[in-house]
Design a protein that fits this description.
The chain is an alpha/beta fold and 587 residues long. The chain is built from 20 helices and 13 strands. The chain has a four-stranded antiparallel sheet. The chain has a four-stranded parallel sheet with strand order 6-5-10-11, sandwiched between helices. Among the domains are: 84 residues, Arginyl tRNA synthetase N-terminal domain (Gyrase A, domain 2, 2-Layer Sandwich), CATH 3.30.1360; 163 residues, Rossmann fold, CATH 3.40.50; 88 residues, no CATH class. It binds arginine (ARG).
Length: 587
């Protein structure tokens, strides 16, 4: 199904051509003034400028031809030469019918699709997932759903922080606590115990303690550095202990992500890039991309026109250790070998934008990324009502698990206040509250353009009015129950029809979906989906207020409205699904 605005652009383009002007001036868009027209074309002005002609004359020439087309109810010129267009109800009806029963709601499937890697979550071993990981997880998950729906092959990777100094800090801290364990005995040759000596809860206590100790005490820091180097060069006991850290952490993170309904494809870590670092560095040196500088090996990345200083990227420190930047470079090699992606999107806090700028420059300079477009999909912070990053009362980061639980409690309270689901079994009520809580958090996050900071306010997020996840869920559930009742009464769905103002409005919204998805995708902007879902829900409310559906006596009219209801529900379900929001069967 061609998109309506594209369809109209072709039509208007042909009219421009007949008027002696290039067809590409005929681009049609949604009207800025829905009170005046449904669509507009501003091309006559640009065409006139290029041809040094009178825009109104061109517009008149074009509109004269368009007026002959029976699909238009109104063709008008406004101001200096804007062309305003309004379709007949029949034309809108015909258009809706082209995708009324389409499983993809009229959205074409991209073929061939691209291969896209989404680097998201970015959690580190031994640090529990907290509110800071929420945005990467939710935005990255929405993007993976969006690209998959479009037809791409997506690999999402948590890119676990499992390498580097923190690991040495943890190893030395465990050694102080439990020195008798075999991991620390250089003479011991295995096998090592199968069960982990520590849980994730232990790690969360041990890590801050170790990190503080290393800050206060240079000896401790040196020990941690040494342990890190030994781990990285493969000391068996350290490797075995570190595997335990990895396994227990992954298990916990998996559970946390699953409770958000997020399921990454890859559980790779920074450590997976490690074997590639040494050959990469040698290769860069051989090709002259990396050069020696004060005992280190660096890739100069400054470019003409740089507004700020761009120090070279260090691929090998003078002590031989690898840095975050080096790991990210080697990870690109790993990914290119693995799936040769068309794009790699890094859904990471905007405070890391310099880091990615540096890595991308070095990668391009060394031609490591193959055909892949590299992009940092940056996002802002989640703040508390004080405008500072959201913290618990005692000043700690809020754990993700607690956050989800709080949202679900708040949702339960809202359900009680509104008398929603009051008569259901406690199991069903709990399931609804959980779904509403998640919808509240996800929608509140995604509805802000990603680089905007926002204030975490569960009371506001869980409201059933306004632009919230729960409101949209509730509207979708209402349509579901309406359709269910119609079915129970034996009311058949009939071909969709547009006859009234509110139906017209809905038809125009429904026809926008392909444009909406394309825009959300190209700007990596889930908020475009949120706005659209809200537009649909509000349009539906007006329609529902204006028309009686169940009490409509004429079967064709009733069936046509039921068809419209179903189309709205299908699109709402699709769009909320892309946002990672589920719709309960009833509420
Ligand atoms: N673990 C990192 C951090 O906590 C985020 C990783 C982001 N992804 C990447 N490829 N660098 O800051």
């Amino acid at each position: 199904m061609p998109q309506l605005t594209q369809d109209l652009s072709v039509l208007v383009g042909a009219a421009f051509l007949e008027a002696g002007v290039e067809a590409n001036y005929g681009v049609v868009q949604r009207s800025d003034r829905p009170d005046l027209a449904q669509f507009q074309c501003n091309g006559a002005l640009a065409a006139a400028k290029a041809a040094k002609a009178n825009p109104r004359a061109i517009a008149e020439n074009v509109t004269a031809r368009l007026k002959e087309d029976p699909r238009f109810a109104k063709v008008e010129i406004a101001g200096p030469g804007f062309i305003n267009l309004t379709l007949t109800d029949q034309a809108l009806t015909d258009h809706l019918r082209t995708f009324a029963d389409d499983r993809r709601c009229g959205v074409p499937l991209r073929s061939p699709g691209q291969v896209v890697i989404i680097d998201f979550v970015g959690v580190n071993i031994a640090k529990a997932m907290h509110v800071g990981h929420l945005r990467s997880t939710i935005i990255g998950d929405c993007l993976q759903r969006l690209f998959r729906f479009a037809g791409d092959t997506v690999y999402s990777d948590v890119h676990f922080g499992d390498w580097g100094l923190q690991m040495g800090q943890l190893i030395t801290e465990v050694e102080r606590e439990l020195p008798q364990l075999p991991y620390f005995d250089p003479a011991y040759s295995g096998p090592y115990p199968e069960t982990s000596p520590v849980t994730t809860d232990d790690l969360e206590v041990l890590y801050p303690r170790a990190s503080a100790a290393c800050k206060a005490d240079a000896d401790r820091l040196n020990q941690a550095r040494q342990a890190t180097a030994d781990l990285q060069t493969g000391r068996p006991g350290y490797r075995a202990l570190w595997r335990h850290f990895q396994n227990v952490s992954i298990e916990t993170v998996k559970r946390e992500l699953a409770s958000l309904g997020v399921h990454p494809d890859w559980w790779k870590g920074e450590s997976d890039a490690d074997p590639l670092v040494e050959p990469m560095v040698n290769d860069l040196q051989m090709r002259g991309v990396a050069v020696e500088s004060e005992g280190a090996l660096v890739v100069p990345i400054d470019q003409e026109g740089d507004k700020k200083e761009m120090p070279p990227l260090i691929v090998r420190k003078s002590d031989g250790g690898a840095l975050y930047e080096t790991t990210d470079l080697a990870t690109i090699i790993d990914r290119v070998r693995e799936v040769d992606p068309d794009q790699i999107l890094y859904v990471v806090d905007q405070r890391q934008s310099d880091h990615f700028e540096r890595v991308f420059r070095a990668s391009r300079k060394a031609a490591l990324n193959g055909k892949a477009h590299l992009e940092h999909v940056a996002f802002g912070t989640v703040n508390g009502t004080d405008g500072k990053p959201y913290k618990t009362r005692s000043g700690d980061s809020v754990k993700l698990f607690d956050l989800i639980a709080q949202a679900q409690d708040e949702a339960r309270q809202r359900l009680d206040e509104q008398g929603i689901a009051g008569s259901y079994s406690s199991e069903e009520r709990d399931a609804i509250a959980n779904a509403v809580g998640l919808a509240a958090i996800k929608f509140a996050d995604l509805t802000n353009y990603r680089t905007t900071n926002y204030i975490f306010d569960l009371v506001r997020f869980t409201r059933f009015e306004g632009e919230t996840g729960p409101y949209l869920q509730y509207q979708a559930v209402r349509i579901k129950s309406l359709l269910r009742r119609a079915e129970e009464q034996g009311f058949a769905v009939a071909p969709v029809m547009v006859t009234s103002a509110s139906e017209r409005e809905l038809a125009l919204s429904l026809s926008r979906l392909p444009d909406v998805l394309a825009q959300a995708e190209s700007r990596r902007a889930p908020n475009v989906l949120c706005d659209f879902a809200f537009e649909l829900a509000q349009g539906f409310s007006r329609f529902y207020g204006e028309h009686h559906i169940m009490s409509e006596p004429v079967p064709e009219a009733r069936g046509a409205r039921l068809a419209l209801c179903r189309m709205v529900l299908d699109q709402l379900t699709l769009v909320l699904g892309l946002l990672g929001i589920t719709i309960p069967e009833r509420m």
